[in-house]
Amino acid sequence: MRIAVYGGSFNPPHLGHVAAARAAIEALRPDRLLVMPTNTPPHKQLERNSPSPAERLKLCRLAFGEIPGAEVSDLEIRRKGKSYTADTVAALREKYPDAELCLVMGTDMFLSFRSWSRWQAILEACTLAVMSREEDDREAIGRFKAELEADCGAHVELISHRPLPMSSTEIRERLRHRRGAEELPGAVYERVIRKRFYGARSELSWLRQTVRPYLRDERVPHVEGVESTAVRLAERWGADPDDAAEAGILHDVTKAQGKEKQLKLCKKYGIMLETAEIENPALLHALTGAALAKDRLA
Ligand SMILES: [Fe+2]
């Protein structure tokens, strides 16, 4: 049995990670690819407003769950503390004594491999599967591969893969500026927005699309008009036009709902009603719309 391990902090997992996982499966043909989110990376601090390890695990399940042959492992997160690969490899060795373990890594990680904690133990237990780009320094990689093989009896496989040009660090920054939807798997983006991870703000085109199923057809031109008027007012009075657009897009999100549903939403979101509101259910969409938008969309 061949088990490939693809570790990382996945903060958040993006489409580049998904493509790399697919490329590793394609090249290595493992019986299983274990995607392994770190609990705490040994050499870097996760940004302060990063989601908890358990939340990153959920995001990984959303990102990699659909890939045949991939499985998200909670091994490092359950172990808590700093996530040393040597510990992970030892645990997997014990769990799968007869399996061939392949550790998937990028070229930067590979070239710094001798600085990893207990790297010799890792080499004894694993094949290293290095994803190298065409434009990488093939000579340096080849030299280091030969060196590890000769000195330590290492097994190193090279996987040719051109990574998508994206990084979690840049995506976190873009999320704060209402960008990044196209770099994340849809379900990951939705959860990031809903949970407000990384201080993310929703991308307006994503928001329009997401709100559309909530609206009756005849309501759409009105909502578009409110959005553009809100933007013009914001520009006129020095408010943030994107915030105004967001409010316009969302303002009628529960307008299509009847009295029963409105009352249900009030109960769900703990909205206290006055007699006038109960007697005029048309007033309720302002309250329920704001609560639903805050909970699910913005
Ligand atoms: Fe309206």
Shape: elongated
Under CATH, the topology of the domain at 2-167 can be stated as: Rossmann fold
Tell me the strand percentage band.
5-15%
The average pLDDT value, as a whole number, equals 94
Largest sheet: 6 strands, parallel
What is the number of beta strands? 6
- The fourth-level CATH homologous superfamily of the domain at 2-167 is HUPs
Give the CATH architecture of the domain at 2-167.
Answer: 3-Layer(aba) Sandwich
**Helical amount among residues, as a percent range?**
40-55%
Identify low-pLDDT runs. none
* Distance between the first and last residues' Cα: 45 Å
Task: Give a concise summary.
By secondary structure, the chain is of the alpha/beta class.
Notes on the protein architecture:
With 298 residues, this protein is an alpha/beta fold. Among the domains are: 2-167, Rossmann fold; 257-298, no CATH class. 51% of the residues lie in helices and 12% in strands. It has a 6-stranded parallel beta sheet, with helices on both faces. Helix 9 crosses helix 15. The radius of gyration is 24 Å and the shape is elongated. The structure holds fe (ii) ion. Residues 222, 226, 251-252 line the site of fe (ii) ion.
